């Protein structure tokens, strides 16, 4: 096995692509799995938690790793796609070691773990060899002093730590895409998952909740106080919030809806009135809506909003007043691809696709799928009997509802 550098830090390893001998990427690193020994003895690194395409997590033994460098990991061949269940004797480095409170034996200094390094031992096994520790901040200093020490000079990593915080793991999760962060959270033990979720800010927690299996969503939301739960639901897209609230006990759901901002709660209540797996239940009530006097420049400015999904940013909807769902009459839709070919000062109304068939809220999931496929769309308007725009169904909404009910859990929770 060739390795450069000889010492590898876990936080820098996470996210690296994994390649097979042919140079094809087969996944990316999510965590390290180790087995703990007696206090002071270096833990042996058993392997890596690897996320393969489809958000499935599998196990990659260290014996199958041929090369690690600053930009990638190479393996001997195909990954074992079997589901990995963490054993009681195993510990996840990123998931369970970060933020542990430890003490340096030689100096008596205490702090929290923010990274761990592994090295190749004489036995050819990989072991954890160094611990990076940050002292608590003192006085006006923004950050406490940091230390990198030998593993055997640290006390506190071989036992459960009831004081374990979440600062450094939260920092790592904040750098990930929401789907990747959800995969890491799902793999944590329940108590650790809850502690980390509670430490995320409202907007980030909302993004991650949208990517978690329903059981995880409910479990985390039920651990929040009602006020914060309502705040997090407000940060979620209305259709995802409606799906989550529908999984809660009716009395809990009503309490949270009462605590939400009235406009946000109204959108959620409206979506909850529709029959499950219909266009009305799947749609988002916040597509990009413009008036008849909007210019192409206006449209392009709106779709640059980084909070829009690619599917929502693909179309704009031109309507009569009011311009919030349910709007005035839908005049037509404009494809951003078409608008990019028009002068910025021209009216969007001059580039409308006004002959496109629309969806009614009672359209079934199969009818929605057929509609998107027939017209080669990634999103489509949903209107009432008066052609008022109620919302838009996107292809990602459709897939969420067409896949098996436990698809997120199967995708996030499979290891090998």
From TrEMBL:
Q: Which Pfam families match?
A: CBS (PF00571), MgtE_N (PF03448), PRC (PF05239), SH3_actinomycetes (PF26205)
| PROSITE patterns membership | CBS
Q: Domain CBS: where?
A: 352-409
Name the Gene3D superfamilies for this protein: CBS-domain, MgtE N-terminal domain-like
UniProt keywords (A-Z) are: CBS domain
Check the record and name the PANTHER family matching this protein: MAGNESIUM TRANSPORTER MGTE (PTHR43773)
Q: What is this protein called?
A: CBS domain-containing protein
- Species for this entry: Nocardioides bizhenqiangii
């Amino acid at each position: 096995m060739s390795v450069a550098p000889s010492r590898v830090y876990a936080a820098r390893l996470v996210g690296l692509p994994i390649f097979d001998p042919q140079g094809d990427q087969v996944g990316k690193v999510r965590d390290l799995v180790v087995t703990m020994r007696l206090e002071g003895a270096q833990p042996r690194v058993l392997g890596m938690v690897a996320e393969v395409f489809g958000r499935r997590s599998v196990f990659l033994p260290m014996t199958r790793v041929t090369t690690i460098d600053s930009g990638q990991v190479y393996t001997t061949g195909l990954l074992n796609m079997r589901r990995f269940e963490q054993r009681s004797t195993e510990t996840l480095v990123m998931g369970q070691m970060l933020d542990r409170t430890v003490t340096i034996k030689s100096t008596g200094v205490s702090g929290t773990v923010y990274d761990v390094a592994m090295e190749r031992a004489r036995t050819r096994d990989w072991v954890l060899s160094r611990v990076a520790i940050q002292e608590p901040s003192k006085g006006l200093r923004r950050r406490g002093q940091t230390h990198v020490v030998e593993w055997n000079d640290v006390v506190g990593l071989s036992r459960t730590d009831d004081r374990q915080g979440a600062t450094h793991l939260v920092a790592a999760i904040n750098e990930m895409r929401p789907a990747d962060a959800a995969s890491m959270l799902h793999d944590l033990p329940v108590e650790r998952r809850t502690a980390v979720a509670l430490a995320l800010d409202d907007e980030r927690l909302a993004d991650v909740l949208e990517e978690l299996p329903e059981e995880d969503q409910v479990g985390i939301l039920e651990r929040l106080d009602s006020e914060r739960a309502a705040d997090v639901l407000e940060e979620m897209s209305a259709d995802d919030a409606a799906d989550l609230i529908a999984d809660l006990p009716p009395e809990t759901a009503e309490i949270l809806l009462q605590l939400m901002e009235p406009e946000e709660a109204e959108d959620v209540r409206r979506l909850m009135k529709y029959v499950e797996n219909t266009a009305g239940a799947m749609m988002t009530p916040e597509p990009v809506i413009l008036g008849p006097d909007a210019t192409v420049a206006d449209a392009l400015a709106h779709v640059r909003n980084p909070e829009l999904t690619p599917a929502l940013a693909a179309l704009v909807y031109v309507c009569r007043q009011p311009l919030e769902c349910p709007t005035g009459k839908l005049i037509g839709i404009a494809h951003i691809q078409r608008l990019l070919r028009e002068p910025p000062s021209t009216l969007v109304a001059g580039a409308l696709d006004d002959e496109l068939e629309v969806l009614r809220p009672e359209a079934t999931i199969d009818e929605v799928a057929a509609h998107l496929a027939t017209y080669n769309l990634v999103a489509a308007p949903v209107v009432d009997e008066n052609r008022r725009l109620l919302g838009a169904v996107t292809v990602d909404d459709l897939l969420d509802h067409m896949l098996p009910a436990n698809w997120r859990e199967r995708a996030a929770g499979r290891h090998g």
